């Protein structure tokens, strides 16, 4: 994900923090500091409220990390694959690149996160009792407050709508009846409905219960709507590319540049061949990809002295038998316009974004002729 930096690795899973998390952290620290001062009493609170608030904000995001790890660990144990976990300004995202087989495991994986948050919330609430008895008033309040936040996190994620975990449970329950695409669309529609509700409450409030003009609730509404739309789009693309191999879509080009070629030469080739990127080869093997953007970042006077290997991006090597969906996912995660295709150590072609778009369009046309606008039968299942 763009704008995220890796801070750790747990169970082989990269843990990343998005810059939006750093933006919201001071606001959360201020908000939680006010809660501490109000709950304890500003005159009795030992330590600055902002210090307590910062500690609570960090602890909350650690709780979110535990929540996401529960999803990821379950997925790994059931044969899934996890790309990374990213902490955002309003929560976290586990990018599970291969789901566990079967709707049951998908539902249990989705429930693992909220269940972990609820258990953690109860444990923190219980743990605050002996702290209060020992006279650690501030620590007891902070522990109980964090417990309530975890309970809210668990319950909120059980809402039956994408992108919340409850929406994934709904999809798993509907998949056997509707097929994965239509089940996803149904859960996404619920998600958009909840987003609209959150937006209306955020703007106008609920008389006697919730004041209007709540920017945080409006932010959640936007996040939920975009997440629901994105999930629906991703599953549709995955279905359209299902069964397609790279060999069916790739462009059989063997055009490449040498690792010692200057960026002037690379730029000339890119322009002449109207390409956005070219594979970089050294001693016959692909060692990376040089993009038009990488060339243009180097000042023109220096391009004659800069070699292609110095700006080449490391890339995974696709084979002709690689699944097209896996290739699209790799391309999207790495933000690359194309990837090299290699067989027996030799470059046999390239797969570009345009190649994938053509494949998707072809599947859509074929699907329209067979089954209507979504290209899948009413009971098709991909679990």
UniProtKB/TrEMBL annotation:
Parts of the chain that traverse the membrane: 21-38, 50-70, 107-127, 139-162, 183-206, 212-230
GO biological process: one example: proteolysis
Entries under SMART domains matching the protein: CBS
Membrane topology: Multi-pass membrane protein
Binding-site residues for Zn(2+), renumbered to this chain: 67, 71, 165
Cofactor(s) listed in the protein's UniProt record: Zn(2+)
Cofactor binding description: Binds 1 zinc ion per subunit.
Localization per Swiss-Prot or TrEMBL: Cell membrane
Pfam families in the cross-refs: CBS (PF00571), Peptidase_M50 (PF02163)
Assigned keywords, A-Z: CBS domain, Cell membrane, Hydrolase, Membrane, Metal-binding, Metalloprotease, Protease, Repeat, Transmembrane, Transmembrane helix, Zinc
Location of the region described as Disordered in the Swiss-Prot/TrEMBL record: 362-383
GO cellular component terms listed in the entry, alphabetical order: plasma membrane
Residues the record marks as active site: 68
Record family assignment: Belongs to the peptidase M50B family.
Name of this chain's protein: Zinc metalloprotease
Organism, scientific name: Archangium violaceum Cb vi76
């Amino acid at each position: 994900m763009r704008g995220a930096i890796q801070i750790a690795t747990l169970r082989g899973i990269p843990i990343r923090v998005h810059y939006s998390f750093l933006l919201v952290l001071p606001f959360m620290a201020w908000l939680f500091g006010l809660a501490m001062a109000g709950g304890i009493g500003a005159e009795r609170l030992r330590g600055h409220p902002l210090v307590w608030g910062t500690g609570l904000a960090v602890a909350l995001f650690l709780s979110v990390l535990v929540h996401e790890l529960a999803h990821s660990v379950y997925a790994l144990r059931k044969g899934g694959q996890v790309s990374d976990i990213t902490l955002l300004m309003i929560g976290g995202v586990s990018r599970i690149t291969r789901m566990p087989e079967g709707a049951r495991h998908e539902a249990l994986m989705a429930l693992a996160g909220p269940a972990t948050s609820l258990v953690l919330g109860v444990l923190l609430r219980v743990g605050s009792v002996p702290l209060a008895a020992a006279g650690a008033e501030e620590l007891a309040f902070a522990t109980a407050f964090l417990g309530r936040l975890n309970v809210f996190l668990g319950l909120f994620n059980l809402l039956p709508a994408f992108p919340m975990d409850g929406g994934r449970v709904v999809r798993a329950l509907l998949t056997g009846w509707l097929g994965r695409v239509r089940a996803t669309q149904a859960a996404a529609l619920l998600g958009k409905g909840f987003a609209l509700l959150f937006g209306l409450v955020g703007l106008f409030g609920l008389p006697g219960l919730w004041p209007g003009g709540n920017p945080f609730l409006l932010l959640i509404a936007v996040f939920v709507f975009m997440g629901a739309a994105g999930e629906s789009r991703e599953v549709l693309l995955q279905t359209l590319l299902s069964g397609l191999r790279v060999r069916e879509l790739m462009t059989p080009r063997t055009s490449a540049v040498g690792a010692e070629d200057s960026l002037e030469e690379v730029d000339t080739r890119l322009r002449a061949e109207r390409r956005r990127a070219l594979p970089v080869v050294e001693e016959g093997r692909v060692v990376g990809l040089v993009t038009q953007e990488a060339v243009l970042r180097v000042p023109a006077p220096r391009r004659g002295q800069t070699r292609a290997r110095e700006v080449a991006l490391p890339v995974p090597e696709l084979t002709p038998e690689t699944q097209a969906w896996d290739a699209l996912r790799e391309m999207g995660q790495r933000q690359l316009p194309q990837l090299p295709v290699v067989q027996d150590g030799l470059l046999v072609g390239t797969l570009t974004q345009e190649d994938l778009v053509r494949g998707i369009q072809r599947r859509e046309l074929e699907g329209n002729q067979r089954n209507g606008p979504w290209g899948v039968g009413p009971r098709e299942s991909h679990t």
